[in-house]
Design goal:
- The longest helix is centred in the last third of the chain and has 20 residues.
- The protein has 10 helices and no strands.
- It has 2 domains: about 45 residues; about 60 residues, no CATH class.
- The chain is elongated and about 80 Å long.
- The protein is mainly α and about 150 residues long.
- The protein starts with 5 loop residues before the first helix and ends with a helix.
């Protein structure tokens, strides 16, 4: 009647009601309205993807939820690669209970191949010597020497 389309009118109405009711009230109603609509949530996330930062997720999700999501998405090799990058970035590999637990489940020779700093290797050997038999240690030392030689040859 006034030259406005229905689409324009509904958008203006939505904007006015959002301002009147308050953004928080509107946002609290959206999950009730779109509870079963997975596409709604995907659309919202895709729309705001460029504006969302890691810090936004950390504020919203518990660290256990983030950890569970990471473990679901990445396989063990990728997790080890990320761990290696983090260790090399911060140089913070220390003799710890966590490292000892990791070495019980991981082939130490494969970890040695990824260690780049000599002080990290020393710390790792300290933990390894506490947890392995003599023959295993000999094999690991041989592997470490071969890896060192390969690095020097490059």
């Amino acid at each position: 009647m006034l030259g406005l389309s229905i689409e324009d009118d509904s958008e203006a109405s939505f904007e006015a009601s959002t301002k009147t009711a308050g953004l928080q009230k509107v946002l609290k109603q959206l999950p009730k309205i779109f509870d079963d609509d997975e596409e709604f949530y995907n659309t919202v996330l895709k729309s705001y993807k460029k504006k969302l930062k890691y810090s936004d997720f950390v504020k919203v999700f518990k660290s256990s939820e983030i950890k569970d999501a990471v473990m679901e998405v990445f396989d063990t090799n990728k997790l080890l690669q990320m761990l290696n990058e983090k260790i090399n970035e911060n140089n913070d590999l220390e003799d710890s209970k966590e490292l000892q637990q990791l070495l019980k489940h991981v082939f130490a020779s494969s970890v040695i191949k990824h260690v780049k700093e000599p002080n990290q290797l020393k710390s790792m050997f300290k933990v390894i010597t506490e947890n392995f038999e003599v023959l295993e240690l000999t094999d690991l030392c041989n592997e470490a020497i071969k890896t060192g030689i390969r690095r020097l040859q490059k």
